[in-house]
Amino acid sequence: QAVVDFERLGEHAAAFQGHDVGFCCLGTTRARAGADGFVRVDRDYVAQAAELARAGGCKHFILQSSRGANAQSRFLYLRVKGEVENLVQAVGFDHCTILRPAVLLCRRQESRPMEWIAQQFLGAVARLFPTAYSVPVEMVARAMVACALQPGEGKVKVLENGAIHELGKA
Predict the structure, then answer these.
(1) Per the record, what is one GO cellular component (predicted)?
(2) Domain-located, residue 4
(3) CATH number of 79's domain
(4) Which residues are catalytically annotated?
(5) Are the C-beta atoms of residues 70 and 120 closer than 8 Å to each other?
(6) Is-contact 97 151, C-beta < 8 A?
(7) DSSP string, 71-124
(8) Is residue 8 included in any domain, yes or no?
(9) Is 10 a member of any domain?
(10) Which of 94, 93, 120 shows the shortest CA–CA distance to 105?
(11) Handedness of CA 72, 140, 145, 1 (dihedral sign)
């Protein structure tokens, strides 16, 4: 494990050397980091990490993004996710897999009351419609590993929530 300072990520290029596959799940919230901090973490840090990974020999980059990601969106969250998807694709990996999960079902260390309420509701809905609105983080992780083990055809693959569920079951 290598600990890096994202404010000086370029100084940690050695940590990105010699890896065939890169996994990126980096992100924060606007509430925690502010709008500028959110953009810096979710777009700028991710794009820079992808560039360092490619320069270090990474052939396949697997990015966790978000359902609804769209660089043209009026909503900051979805716009930034769409922008970072475009930036990562432009790096030029042999394979780039983008996962767009819906609401992530997980336990958090910090208190997020509204997210907790949403997770409780969506957890119940998931029993009836398992792939519609949410996905457990463990399933996203399994899907990411499956993508690494079998990258498939094509340079870029985008997996929406239903496909994440399918891969995560395998």
Answers:
(1) cytoplasm
(2) no
(3) 3.40.50.720
(4) 77, 81
(5) no
(6) yes
(7) TT-SSHHHHHHHHHHHHHHHT--SEEEEEE-SEEE---SS--HHHHHHHHHHHH
(8) no
(9) no
(10) 120
(11) positive
Q: How many domains does the chain have?
A: 1
Structure-derived torsion over alpha carbons of residues 116, 42, 16, 87, reported in degrees to the nearest 10: 140
Global model pTM greater than 0.70? yes
Domain that holds residue 53: 17-169
- Kind plus residue range of the DSSP H or E element containing 158: strand 156-160
| pLDDT by residue, tens only, the chain of 170 residues | 899 999 999 999 999 999 999 999 999 988 889 999 999 999 999 999 999 999 999 999 999 999 999 999 999 999 999 999 999 999 999 999 999 999 888 776 665 676 667 666 666 665 656 666 788 899 999 999 999 998 778 899 999 999 999 999 87
Task: Dig out the tokens for 5 from the structure.
Answer: 């300072």
Residue 112 lies in a domain: yes
